[in-house]
Design a protein that fits this description.
The protein has eight helices and nine strands. With about 250 residues, it is an alpha/beta fold. Helix 3 links the parallel strand 2 and strand 3. The chain binds S-adenosylmethionine.
């Protein structure tokens, strides 16, 4: 199981490789034939970010998405990553984009958000392909709840394994998820557990939906090839998960 210490080391070691392949938006699920900016534009609109909000980018990478959001909206952004190297690179990027008034970056663990932020601070907390790294995602969801204002939102973009396979396909799915977890320091989320944790914590579901674009994994496959990561348990890729957006409101 990936702990936050392991995730920290993973991103301290691998961020240069991610930057070479993925660029500054470190997300595997991208829009076919479109730039990372188009993906960030989609996420900004779909998550409902608007001028005047104070938001937390929980698991911010090197701030590719946050920089895009800050350039396009009047936002106050707190950005958090467990990787010291990512904090350093993100700070350099934010300074060079002249966005220090809008984005503040902190090194820390999203399981303990109340250590870094006051209660009821944020209009929205975003987890953009980051919640799946959590050792205990229920704890992270509770931690987010405490720093979100009443009426504010949590927004999660991540992948959730399919449940329809049976027999040998089901076994293969389990092996692939296990490989993904160990190769990418992930703790792939279970949709039912995640929804239960959100609702038990006190969130109400605003929407759960399939990402409404043609998904392209070319960047991920290039990365896997470059670093000789073999997760597919066979020659062909097969569909193991659905990519979803989940948005919930703190009541
Ligand atoms: C796949 S990257 C996504 C980065 C960013 N959201 C983006 O779209 O470019 C996952 C991010 O989650 C962060 N992360 C993972 N576990 C974390 C934890 N326990 N606390 C804070 N950040 C964490 C990693 O440091 C990394 O920045």
């Amino acid at each position: 199981m990936a702990s936050s210490k392991k995730v920290e080391k993973y991103y301290d070691d691998m961020t240069p490789g991610y930057l070479d392949t993925y660029g500054e938006t470190i997300q595997g699920c991208r829009i076919k034939d479109k730039s990372a900016d188009s993906l960030n534009d989609f996420l900004m609109k779909s998550s409902g970010l608007i001028d005047g909000m104070t938001i937390l980018d929980a698991g911010c990478g090197v701030c590719g998405p946050s920089i895009y959001f800050a350039k396009n909206l009047d936002l106050q952004i707190e950005a958090l990553t467990v990787s010291g190297l990512q904090v350093k690179i993100a700070n350099e990027r934010v300074i060079s984009e002249n966005l220090t008034e809008k984005i503040k970056i902190t090194k820390g663990d999203y399981s303990y958000l109340d250590k870094y932020y006051s209660p009821d601070k944020f209009d929205q907390v975003l987890f953009l392909e980051s919640l799946g790294h959590a050792e205990n995602s229920s704890k992270v969801i509770e931690s987010a709840y405490n720093v979100i204002k009443p009426g504010g939102y949590i927004y999660i973009k991540d992948y959730f394994p399919l449940e329809s396979y049976t027999g040998s396909q089901k076994k293969r799915l389990k092996r692939v998820i296990k490989n993904l977890n160990s190769s990418f320091c992930y703790n792939t989320l279970d949709l039912n557990n995640c929804l239960t944790a959100l609702r038990k914590t006190g969130f109400q579901i605003t929407f759960i939906k399939k990402l409404d674009f043609q998904i392209d994994f070319e960047v991920s496959y290039t990365f896997e090839e470059k670093f000789k990561i073999d997760v597919w348990d066979g020659k062909e890729h097969f569909k193991v998960a659905e990519w979803l957006e989940i948005k919930c409101q703190k009541i």
